[in-house]
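Reviewers asked in the last cycle whether our approach scales beyond single polypeptides. To address this, we selected a multi-component target totalling 894 residues and predicted its structure end to end. The input consisted of the following lines:
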Amino acid sequence: MSTSLPSVEDHRKMHVVVVGHVDHGKSTFVGRLLNDTDSLPNGKIEQVRKNCAIEGMEFEYAFLLDALIEEQEQNITIDTTRIFFRTKKRAYAIIDAPGHKEFLKNMVTGAASASAALLLIDAKEGVMDQSRRHAFLLSLLGVKQLVVLVNKMDLVDHSESTYQKIVVEYSAFLKTLGLNAVHFIPIAAKHGENVVERAAKMPWWKGPTVTEALDNFAHEDDLTGLPLRLPVSDIYRFDHRRIIAGRVEAGAIRPGDELIFQPGGRRSTVRTFEDWPGPESRSVVGTGGSASVTLSEQIFVERGQVAAHPNNQPRVGREFRARIFWLGKEPLVPNKSYRLRLLTQNVEAVIAKIEKITDASTLESKEGSSVPRDSICEVIVRATRNIAFDLHSECPITGRFALEEGGRIHGGGIILDAVTQSSAPSGKVTATERNARAGHPPAVIWFTGLSGSGKSTIAEAVERRLFDASRNVIRVDGDDLRVSLNRDLGFSAADRSESVRRASAVAGLFAGTGHITLVTLIAPLAADRAKARAALANHAFIEVFVDAPLDVCESRDVKGLYAKARRGEIAEFTGISSPYEAPESPEVHIKTDKTSTEEAVDLVLGAIDKVLQGKCEDWEV
Amino acid sequence: MSRNAQNDHLTRLEQTSIHVFREAFANFRSVCMPWSMGKDSNVLIWLARKAFCGKIPFPLLHIDTTYEFPEMYEFREKAKVIHGIDLIVRVNEDAIRRGIGYSTHDPVTVTHELKTVPFKAAIDEFKWDALVTGIRRDEDPTRAKERWFSPRSAEGNWDYKDQPPEFWGQFASTAPEGGHVRVQPLLEWTELDIWEYIRRENIPNPTLYFARNGKRFRSLGCHPITHPVDSPASNIDEVIEELKLTKTSERAGRAQDHVGRNSMQELRAKGFM
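The resulting structure, written as structure tokens, was:
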């Protein structure tokens, strides 16, 4: 084993991906590695030998890994497998990635989490398509530490000249990718030669064995020295605290730091870290750490935004040039809508232009109007609204993204350059464009409840908070409508229905212009409210039930209406002489006799947050 | 045992698991965490409380086979209070009425009837679209192929031949129509990591894991089919020392895994954890 290294144990597990052309011996190599480092559970090898005997097959080390039936039948590894082993130096998770062409996505899954790679080349077959393709992907995925294993040396009589020929040919290829193999190790995995033990049959090899080479790898670069990038994962309001939750992807964050949230550009200061179980919290959270941040100044923050220090911010824009790998069954085509996922940002995007498509084997480029599965290409990506990002060369973790369609990831890429806004669009102004300008989609928030329950008070406070957060917001108030648009209407059931219909039509117009529209209207009948919801089905709709007992509303009686109704001066007054049908399942249910206005506003804003991210949950206090 | 060391192996695992929890909660409409009361499950509770700053914002589910060790029921009630758990308990009463049990049926049938069937029924009842599981890649070869976020069909089936790609911290964000996504925050942990973390954080666990009369349980399931292993390890330090040396597989004491050559795969393809 590693003789030259001190026996200092490294407590961090290293992830190593194993790649190479199909049938160049990856599974056999990994099986042998596990066996020779004494990392197999007791009885495992006997169990596999027994199973082989039962099925009349010759035992192979590859079977140790190929635990699923199908693999054994087809003799290929169908998915990435993580296998743990350790040397005296440290623990490893080895990722056995598939070599078969159609399972490229699994290779990507495996290689993206690795800090080093082992690439196998069959000494007899030599450099093949996938030997080149996999190296290209490693360079695209940012795996820089590479050792090439020239395998099956036993089949070429352990010939140094055959080995040298492969070294010369493949080194030249790697150079064109900007990659450099740390070693080319001649091995015969089947017989364990130069895997852990030195091979007596290759006395000419003076370099390390595979485990010696692995132990010399360094962990992936620590990104703590880079500028802070803290993408917002969520905002928690489980109790009185409002906690911004996220993982520090680069840099470090401390209490007292001024933060700027992009896109949007609003600023605040880190007040505390809410670490559980406490009582003390961390004084700094570095790269990879989960942060639970409260802010000194309450600003509108939402999932997807990236917190940074004001003196070192990410770029904000809608368009960039990227190198993409595409794994989708359907080809990647321009002007089709995809979801662009970058950290916690998830926005609609199109491929504005395909610049070139690269053959991953020959690295030759050509033009094309669509990108078939398993290709690499350079494209212009255009998002429908601003996102925060970095160039991959500046900060790898904020400079890469995934493309999703129908809830499934089909590709990924790295950002090469930012592109400044190109040609002006023409024709009808679309909802997408309006949303892009507003920075958020519209929504209708319908506050229903008895007169005096607190609808307007809460709606006004919500409007203030949204307005201060630069949201397009407007309030449609039932009392205002009554003296204007609805002044021909009284309090009869029919007139009430008509007033709800008119209010929903007005709300629809405002929402159509991209506004978050707050409607405050008693709307006592469930059937009328259901009609309003249906009429506004094109928009996110949140029903807020502002709920207070009648006696509480009556005791408030701000406008003196209850007194008038009790005196019989208003006929059919809701709650007194006309029914109020409480909503059965409002999105938000606020009991104003038990909840402060501030808490109520947080609840409504929480529901709006959710809806603007395409989801809505029930909130009740 | 420095809690601040960011590069510490356990802290890295912990922080990654917290990230997985948070992404699941942000992405899915309705999350639930099945709870076996075993050590991995209890570590999950701890990680969830860290992820959500003290309070677990979704319910836990215990599928009670009625064959739990008595100590586990006591532990359940205690832990419920300690962690402030919103607990849902489900039993397949129908199967028990039909006389399904270990004295009359094989372990695969009983596990299916008393675990998988009520588990699926609970999913249908509550319409969860994300379930947090405690499975680890080092437990079993079929689990080594798992993803952080693993979609399951409406029938609960795992399409292990066509799993979504997963890279750069981007996970499958949508459950299949009528199905759900298994969220697996402990995927990268090993059995040894679990115990070292339990020791570091002082996480409550059943004492069945510690040796009495030279035997202890390494993995806990239904009592008729869960056998203790020979071990003198009577406290957490001794368990950790033992694990550093052992080469016996963790689930060796779990009978349902070993009935046929591919019994674990059959169970898992049908919806078993």
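Residues 1-8, 67-79, 614-621 of chain A have pLDDT under 50 and may be disordered. We regard this as preliminary and will revisit it once experimental data from Aim 1 are available.
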